[in-house]
Structure formats: C-alpha cells, structure tokens
Amino acid sequence: MCVLDTRINLRVKNILKKIFSTSDYITVTAIAKELGISNRTILRELPAAEKWLLNTGCRLEKKSGVGIRAIGKPEDKNNLINLLDEEKEEKLYTPKERQTIICSELLQNQEPVKLYTFTRILDVAEATVSNDLDKLEEWLGKQEVTLVRKPGLGVYIEGEEDNIRKCMINLIYENINENHLLGLIRKNISKEQVPVSNTELIARSRLLNLVNGNTIHQLEKLVHQAEERIGYNLADSAVVGLIVHLAIAVQRIRKNEDIVIDKKFMEELKNSEEYTVAEKLAHEIEDIFDIKVPSDEIGYITMHIKGSKNIKTNEKDSGNFIGNNELVELSREIIRIAENETGKFLSQNEKLLTGLTNHLGPAINRLKMNLEIRNPLYTQIKTHYPDLMILAEKCIKVVEEYIDIKMPDTEIAYIAMHLGAAIEKSKVSPKRVFRAAIACATGIGTSRLLATRIEKEYDNIEVAGTVSMFNINNNWLKEKGIELIISTVVLDECPVPVVVVNPLLFQEDKARIDTLLEEVRNTCPNQPSGKKKTLNFKEKMFELNCYNNAITEILDNFFYIGDTQAEDVSQLINDISRMACSSEEDREQLVKDMEEREEKGGTFIPEYGIKLLHCRTKAVSQIHFGIIKLNKDIKNKGNIKEGAELAMVAVAPEGSSRYMLETISHVNGILVDQPEFIRILKDGSKEDIFDELCSILEEYYNEKNNKYMKN
C-alpha cells in the first residue's frame, strides 16, 4: 500500500469515503446532505481530494448533470478505503470549537494574548480569529464580561470576578454534559454514546484546563465528607456544581483573584447552619492545596450548599430564605392555577404537591443567591411540550410575584415537568382507586420491585399486597378486597382479572394496565371494600415479632462476594450455593431451584446495572440475602451479556411466612425508592452495604411498629 506525504482534512476524507463506498455516480447534493455541509464546500474541497488520489491508482470521474464516481481497480479501491481509515487528518475546527478554545485560553490568562497565538493554535487566518472574537464578544457581553482588543498588545477580558467565574462555569456546561462531568469526577468516563471528532476532544481538553483533574478528584473526597457533616446527600447535579465551583475557585485564588459578597448578605450566610460546614470544608481545602481561602469565598461555598436543598425555617435563618410553610402554600397556588387552566383534577395529588414543594425550595434559594439553574432537558421540553411550557409560565407567576424575581426558562421547564407528569396521570379518573395485588413466581423478588414502580406511576392503584403465584387463593383475595392482579408471570384460572407485565414496567405494560383498569371500572363501577380485621394486642405483638425474626434472619445471613470470577449466570448461581448451603446435597438443590427460576425469566434492571437472583427452596432453612460485585459482564440464560455490575441475591425457605417474604421484598423495592442505596451497593464496602441494610430494615421495623400501635 502506498504511503502519502500529503495530509487531508477530515472533510476531504469523508467526501472520498462517501464517493468510494458508492458503486455508481453520486451527486454533489447527495454528498453534501449526507455530510451536513454545503454544495459549495464540496466543490471547494474536490481539488484537494483529487490531488491526494494521484499516487493511489484511483481517480474521480465527474459527469455534468449526473455526478461523481470513483474509477479504479477493485483491489485499488479497497486499498484506498483502508488507507483513508489510517490517514491522519489535519485539524479542522468548527467555529464553535474555535470559539470555545479561544474563550478558555482568555479565561485562564491574566495577560493579553496576541492574535497570532490563536492563528497558530487553530491553524486559521487572523480574519477568521477576528470573526470568532466578534461572536465571543457578544457571548461574554451577555454575562457582563468585556472583551478588550488592543492593537499591538493583544486580547484580554475584563469584568467582576463573580462574572468571570460564571463565564468559566457556563463555558464548561455548554460544551460538556453533566454526565460526562460526573464521570470525570468519579474517574469513570465511559465511551461517548455519540461519537465526537478529534477536534472536539481537543477543544474539550483545553476547556478542562479551567479545572485541574487532580484537583477535582481531591475535592470530591472533601465534598463527600461535607455531605456526612450536613446529614444528607446532595443530588448528583449539586455535587457536580459544587465541585466545579470549588475547582475554579482554587485556580483563581492561586492567581490572587478573590470574589466579593455583599456584607449584609454575608452576615445572613454566617448565621446559617451550612456556613459551619462550608468553613470546615474551606479549612480542608487550605490544608490540601496550600492556599488561603478568604471569608467571602466561604460565603460562596455556603450558597452552593444552601442552594442544593430545601431549607427548613429555624431561628437562625434570616428573612432572605423561604420556609417550608410558604413553599407548601406557593405549591398549592401553582396547582390551583394549573387546575383552572387545564380543567384537570390536581388538588388531591399529594405527589405533585410534595414534588413541587421539594423542588421550589432549592430553586428559590439559588435564584435569591444569584446562582445558575441548569436543566439538561430544557431544549427537549421546549421543543416537544410547548403547551406545558406556556402553562408552567402562567403558574409560576405567583412565585415570581412573591419573591420578586423573574424565573429563568430552565426553571419554568422544571415546573412543566412536574405538571406534565401529574396531568398525564389525571387522564385516568382519580375518583376511583383500584385495589391490586402484585404477583411473581416466588413472592420475594420482582413483586416488591414492581409494586414500588406501580405506586410511583399510578395514583389510582392501591397495592394491597404482594404474593407468590402459588399462594393466591380466593379467601385471601376477598379478605384484601383485591380487584385485579398485576403479575410478572402467567397465572392459570385466577378468580380476578390479571394483567401480565415486565417488572421494569415499560410503556406497553402501562398501556395493558390502563386497558384492564377500564375493564374493571366498567364491570364494577363502585369501590369494593376488603374486610378489615381488627387485631387484639396479643395478635399485634405476634405479627410484630414475626417481622422482627425476618429482619434478624436477613442480617444474620447477609453475605458479600467482592471478587467473583463468574462468566455466566450458572457460575454465579454456583457461587451463591456455596455461600448459602453447607452440604453438597443442599447446594445441588439450590442450584436446581435457582436455575429453574431463571428459566422462567431472569430480572435485570438496566438503568442501575443490577441483576436480581432469587428463589424459594428447601435447600435452606433461613432466608439469605447477599450482594455480589461482578468483575466482568456475565452472560444470562440466553447467552447474552446484559451489562450487570452487581447481583442482588435473595434465597428463602420453601415454606417462608408472608412476613418473611414481605420483608425481603421491601429491600428489593428500595432499589426504585432510594437511588442512594444503589450508589452504596456499587461503590461501598461490605461494611457500608451492611450498615445501609441495617438502616433500611430499622426504618421498616419502626414503620410496622407505628402502624400496629396506632390501630
């Protein structure tokens, strides 16, 4: 194969690939459409393409009114396609990439930068750089930062330190999505879902010079320690925001660029409980990075922490921050306006009220502190749900008037999301609540997972219980007042209507449930009432003790495997049998029962990368619960790699009581209810996972205790 000295840019390479991958003539218009560029650009690049082809044994044939085709022997054409794949292209930045690189360089430099520096970096003419600076000047101006151009001296930026930092943060967020930033923070960057060009990667790399990689990883540890001190976990977006802010702050403090906060507002911040946490965090930053963090900088850290949660009213907070009672009233007013505008019945939707209240708290605090509100879904919501945006804009006026601040479109989009979800659910009349049972093969695995999803998706379905397919009987259904069963497996001869769904509850499953609800509504329009048996004190204590025994068994028999070498689910089941059983006979029985359960359909939760393995078996006399970290992606029964990172295992005795099954099902359901549990499962040690399991079961026991003592 011939080696060429002449390099080509990416555009020429793509044009040639398109022509040589087509056996017949192809028009300039077709090439332009495929590559997303103009006909004129194609014609301008063709001479470079023809020059590059001179020593390849191939050439281009152009026929007026017909198009262009590749001429050459088949073997020469194949060699050329391989050569194109190997050929290194010249850097050819898009205008957006050039402007990103220029801006990141200017933001990092305190001294003027000469134009020829940019022409050398970007390999473009001065006129192109000047045009990019015009665009950049407009972008900077919107953020109250000035681009200064002085002939003979160079280009630099001027502005308040607060605004310069906002520019840095906005530049990062506009060019790097939040998931990529989160991956960078956690040293866990996966391959891009959408391929990016070499030049885009270079632009991003220069952009990330604004925040040093090692600095970010050190700050992550400090932020997680701060989370422990404040007693709650920040959302991923809040963690990213705080770490990016701190990383930029460290760089700017090193350059003696300090931020200033209004003195009166600073005093308010000092009176908040978050200031103490921010102060401790600042001292740790001083020790690690050998810098002095000014008090105003501590105020900014406080603002980020306060802006990440709903602030409860207490005696230390001043009037600048809003309390929970006010948030509830504002949320009710939003719902009232939405009802009037849409004619939908929303005022009894507790989830909507709670969701709005929890969201408005941090949002209002961020706006009051002049912090950015980012919404990665804003463009999609604006494009696909314009009616919801208009509705949200009307509803949010009550908040704008109350706090005297104009809400940004990104925040309006968040309100649109909350209202849209509630309006969608209101399409099924909320006046009729259906009592349903959730069934699965064993009663310990997917039933609770599905129950949690049903409760989240449907306000008009009351989950009266979870049950194994083998334990469904008429008496139990009547006692519970069950109208329908939502099952993960096919049930034979059931006395009430049944709908079979995937435990992950896909869109088609919801459609089947909606259809069944209409059928039940038409055949039985009135709400049935289950027989509610009143327990005496002795019966209450007996049932409470049963839950206590179930919890104790789960904790006593908890196991953890952190380094399995299993390559498929069968090998994984063998690992489980060795942990749960002492005799060879019992191990063989457990393997048989769990294999049979998997044959009926395994359960994998793709959004979390978690495989659920569970069964009921006579191989064990007590319930066993465990977590297995997977070193490699295992194959399922269909010989397909699903992408599982860990397995959650539950093995119960064949004759397990309903208390035992309900308790272990509750732990499975936490996967949907508490994303923080998933983070601990993936990143935590055996001790971390066990401690979290203890907390979950303690809370569960307290709920049961309160329920029995009240009734």
UniProtKB/TrEMBL annotation:
Residues 434-525 form the PTS EIIB type-2 domain. It comes from the Bacteria. GO terms for biological process: phosphoenolpyruvate-dependent sugar phosphotransferase system; regulation of DNA-templated transcription. Keywords: Repeat, Transcription, Transcription regulation, Transferase. GO terms for molecular function: protein-N(PI)-phosphohistidine-sugar phosphotransferase activity. Residues 210-315, 322-429 form the PRD domain. Signal peptide: none annotated. Residues 553-700 form the PTS EIIA type-2 domain. This is Transcriptional antiterminator. It comes from Ruminiclostridium cellobioparum subsp. termitidis CT1112. The lineage of its organism: Bacteria, Bacillati, Bacillota, Clostridia, Eubacteriales.
